[in-house]
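Prompt: Have a read of the protein record below and flag anything odd:
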Amino acid sequence: MNAVSKQMLTTNTELRDLHGQIVDVPQNLRAKATEILASLESLKKVMVAFSGGIDSTLVTYLAKLALNENAIAVTADSPSLPQSELQETKTLAAQMGIRHLIIRTEELSDPNYVSNPSNRCYFCKKELGEKLTRLAESMGGYVLLDGTNAEDLKGHRPGAAALSERGILRPLAEAGMSKDEVRELSRYLGLPNFDKPSMPCLSSRVQYGEIITPERLRRIERAEDLIRSMIAVKELRVRDHGNLARIEVGKDERELLFNKELLDRIANSLRQLGFTYVTLDILGYRSGSMNDFAKAKDP
């Protein structure tokens, strides 16, 4: 546990000072956090879709703060979730002291999802929303929440529409909290993953139109694990274009790969996984780069 995470969950009294007594928190963040806490308290009991990303971690933390034992975190385990991410949700939930449930989702049983259209995320979140709704109802009518922030409602977000159809609430978005504000508030609260990069599911690495299979997802996960074992990079995606692997790292991290021996090791390792060609994207990591391909195909 790092120095930041040791600051988490000191005492309940100190945590409840967030309602207006933490001097160091800027007024705008304190106001939004207070608004969210009041909203959560009014819901009586909540169930948070907890992916382990910073957005859902903040919602989970605030839900625990507002409702204590009447807050539950739920993580969906599926072939599209890296096992390291699943383990991190367990660690974070234990640090926050919140009850944590893990459910299995079966999006790979849906041919609409497996065919990998540009709105693939809709079918994934549809499956998740259905599973969460059944669980919440079976446990006595918990109100469902997710970690959508205000910026997530912009751009190509088919998954957000699927969750809206299930009436899942978005405390961060409703309070107008941006991604930067989420990170800043999380830092003040001592959440250990406040600076964690976004980590969408493994299917987001597969070129639209290429069939998604468990084997393909495991290959992507293995490829990223291998690269991380060779070099410490914060941002990393191995994009699967069939027989070609396109590696993206953070724009400020590209120079870390400018080493012939390292590039040879990476290429050989990924070719052993079944990729015929291995490339480094010279533009570096950018969120949603697979959408560039979809746009290029549009008339």
Summary: Residues 202-297 form a domain with the GMP Synthetase; Chain A, domain 3 fold (CATH 3.30.300). The mean pLDDT is 87. Strands lie at 46-49, 71-77, 99-104, 143-145, 236-241, 244-249, 277-280.
